[in-house]
Amino acid sequence: MRILQSMLTALVNAPVRMAALGWRQPAGIDNDPEAAIDAVLSATGEVSSLVYARSLLDQIEAMDDSALATLMAHVAARFDLNGDQLARAAAAYATKPDAAKLAGIAATAEPRWMELFRRLNATDGGTVRLVRLRERMLRMAGPSPDAGRLDSGLKSLLRMWFNPGFLILQPIDWSTPANILEKIIAYEAVHAISSWDDLRARLAPEDRRCFAFFHPSMPEEPLIFVEVALTGAIPRDIDSVLEIDREALSAESASTAVFYSISNCQAGLAGISFGNFLIKRVAQELKQEFPELKRFVTLSPVPGLMRWLRKANPDLAAVFDAADAGFWNGDAAQHKAAFLAAAIRYFTEPEREDGWPNDPVARFHLGNGAILEQLNFGADRSPKGMRQAGGLMVNYLYDLDVVEANHETFHETRAVPLSPALRRLTPR
Questions:
Q1: 259 near 226, Cβ under 8 Å?
Q2: What is the CATH number for 49?
Q3: Which three-class secondary structure string do you get for 211-257?
Q4: Cβ atoms 33, 148 nearer than 8 A
Q5: One domain, residues 264 and 310
Q6: Exposure winner among 24, 144, 183, 246, fewest CB in 10 A?
Q7: Paired residues of 210 in beta bridges
Q8: pLDDT tens digit string along 372-383?
């Protein structure tokens, strides 16, 4: 099979050789995307379909946004499903259900552009090119019903192609190839990596770990990665975790694994969640390597807190918006109790219509079965940390023995599970 795959790839990448075999590419498809689409969908041979699909992708990637929007509207209109045919197929099945009539429903219930995406995906590098295409589609202004339908279909295909069962968990360390390390620096979305020394401090010491999910079709493109600190206690601030010149802890003496940064890397896979699988897989890997680990926690940002507080308590928000370096040495203490009380309200009294917690990071971790363990006042005094959360960071605790039960309970009740210490801070 590998030999056959190599032969097909060689043929696709060298159409001139195919001419010697008597194959001729239809005229015009290299500069007419609509003709290329027709050729892709009408091709009966695997090799010709791959060549046409590659030509179409080349043209799409050369288009400006206006031309791409026009092409997407054409695809959505011309290759949509036929509602009348689907209705007749469903009526026939309702009259006399059998396998043939069920197959008839399946054949008419899917737009033809779904098959177009499948054939584009089959080209060499097609998966990553479709991910980039979806990233571009999401970024383009002016969403339309046509674009929405195409995105919904492409997203469903990507969700199948990026099923967690296909993903490969790989450790990222100082020996990882430089091209991937450069992407870790570029994709870090929580705590920016300022230099190679900064990256080395996160990867090289024995009490630091990093893991990423990869897909076989994108072996040099991390999908998501998590940075982990092995510590002796639950950390209360980010500076102690990120400190470059700190003294490393012996990994065998660590009792706590701290997930302090989780970064999604591929904007084209937005809405396809990998983080929940990543955290649980990494926790299992670490527990196997270090059986003495007792706690698995996060040190997480609270990105929506100050936006909420500016509406809920403008006077208190103004204090933290105006905070400077000297604030933490003087005035912070007198505002701490009020600020933490407001934070508890933010986490436990949702204002969303669907009843889920206000904070997106909370929704993610609590939805994965964690509990809100600890609030850390003044834990991130960086400009970003102050702007988003007034310096607050929180720890979510993953108790591996009850994480699945917590997941089920949270999705049933939507009640925020709190540690005993935080329950004592909650108004009764």
A1: yes
A2: 1.20.140.90
A3: EEEEECCECCCCCEEEEEEEECCCCCCCHHHHCCCCCCCCHHHCCEE
A4: no
A5: no
A6: 24
A7: 227
A8: 999 999 999 999
Strands 295-298 and 256-264: parallel
Angle, CA of 306, 309 and 313, to the nearest 5°: 145
H helices present in 122-262, as ranges: 126-139, 145-161, 178-187, 196-203, 239-242
Estimate the share of the chain in helix, then strand, then coil, as percent rounded to the nearest 5: 55, 10, 35
Burial of residue 84, with CB atoms counted within 10 A of its CB: 0-12 exposed, 13-18 middle, 19 or more buried: exposed
Residues 228, 261 contacting (CB under 8 angstroms): no
| 10, 147: one domain | yes
Q: pTM of the full predicted structure?
A: 0.88
Q: 314: domain range? A: 305-423
**Got the DSSP string for 250-268?**
PGGG--EEEEEEEEE--GG
Report pLDDT digits (tens) over 279-334. Answer: 999 999 999 999 999 999 999 999 999 999 999 999 999 999 999 878 998 889 99
Contact 400, 359 (CB under 8 A): no
Classify residue 345: in a domain, yes or no: yes
DSSP H or E run through 48: helix 46-62
Q: Decide: helix, strand or coil at residue 91.
A: helix
Residues with Cβ within 8 Å of residue 7, at least 6 apart in sequence: none
For 182-196, b where at least 16 C-beta lie within 10 A, e where not — what string? ebbeebbebbebeee
pLDDT tens for residues 137-152? Answer: 998 866 677 888 899 9
Domain boundary among 138, 161, 184: 161
Bridge partner list, 394:
300, 375
User: Alpha-carbon distance 281 to 284, whole Å?
Assistant: 5
Residues 138 and 182 in one domain: no
Q: Can you give the C-alpha Rg of the chain in angstroms? A: 26
Distance from C-alpha of 400 to C-alpha of 370, rounded to nearest angstrom:
9
Q: How many domains, in total, are found in the chain?
A: 3
Residue 8, token pair as written in the block: 């097909």
**In a shared domain, residues 151 and 183:** no
Residues 8 and 125 in one domain: yes
∠ Cα 286 287 292 (to 5°)? 115
Residues 91 and 141 in one domain: yes
Q: Which two tokens stand for residue 362?
A: 């909370």
- 268 and 320 together in one domain: no
Within a domain: residue 428? no
User: CA nearest 169: which of 257, 274, 290, 287?
Assistant: 274
Residue 400 and residue 344 share a domain: yes
pLDDT of residue 135: 94
Give CA–CA dist 178/204, Å, rounded: 14
- Residue 294 has a pLDDT of 94
